[in-house]
Amino acid sequence: MPIVQIELIEGRTVEQKRVLAEKVTRAIVESLSCPETAVSIIMREMQTDNFAKAGKLWCDK
Amino acid sequence: MPIVQIELIEGRTVEQKRVLAEKVTRAIVESLSCPETAVSIIMREMQTDNFAKAGKLWCDK
Amino acid sequence: MPIVQIELIEGRTVEQKRVLAEKVTRAIVESLSCPETAVSIIMREMQTDNFAKAGKLWCDK
Amino acid sequence: MPIVQIELIEGRTVEQKRVLAEKVTRAIVESLSCPETAVSIIMREMQTDNFAKAGKLWCDK
Amino acid sequence: MPIVQIELIEGRTVEQKRVLAEKVTRAIVESLSCPETAVSIIMREMQTDNFAKAGKLWCDK
Amino acid sequence: MPIVQIELIEGRTVEQKRVLAEKVTRAIVESLSCPETAVSIIMREMQTDNFAKAGKLWCDK
Prior knowledge:
about 30% strand; alpha+beta; Macrophage Migration Inhibitory Factor; homohexamer
């Protein structure tokens, strides 16, 4: 039941998400000694006009 | 002001979401004795390559 | 894998949370025809100075 | 490291989001005396069939 | 129905949160031309061992 | 700007969180080829009466 939510800028391939899911799950299992089946990961992809840093939209940088 | 966020795999019909909103709202009102108007529900639909369980993407299962 | 996050003002009893978990889970199972074991619910309790509506803290109302 | 997540009904222009990012960032900087570069904002746009208030979908109102 | 979630390092006073709620609400109302009563803000305070940047806990910096 | 939110049952040591932050950050950097400084991690610890699976509170299992 570690539940992980990851916000990403859009544009990742399915293969990158596949590797991300594997590696993040392993990182959690190793750190917390929980079973792999307990780990859920939600990825959310943001358009570049839906993220801002220091008051500026990502698409304006 | 119970605010509810629900993550779902994509592919639900509007009618399913309509029933979900009604039933979840009623469940909260009955459990917490709060007014119906206080309940907000956000649904977020995930592509099957944006959810992973046990290190595997949902689309790979 | 419906994953539910519920924000509540603090002060609910364990019994209220127990009923909430049962009823919200049943509402989701009935609406989406998913197995009960697929439903996870996270409750987060807010202090009254950590929620605001219409620009006013809940503790100031 | 104030990290802000804002849920909106879809349909805002990029210019509205640009102004929102600027104004919300400034509001946080002024209130908390933190540097502008520390503020991240995530906007999430909801379809009108993905938000409910008082048990009713937004698209049904 | 803009719903705002703000993650903060713990240690803000109630007065700081009061000002934050007022200013962020006004920023949203001005940017999106929505009524003040539609804006909800959830603040979540993190202990310094519950936030990490660049792989390091905040309490270790 | 990958921003990660992790929900955990309470009871982890600071050392476990330190390792978690390091390993999850590395997992993201390796998967997405982003700089380490871009990764933020928020951990949220849940009491066992604030998490439910299959309609049952964690504290009742």
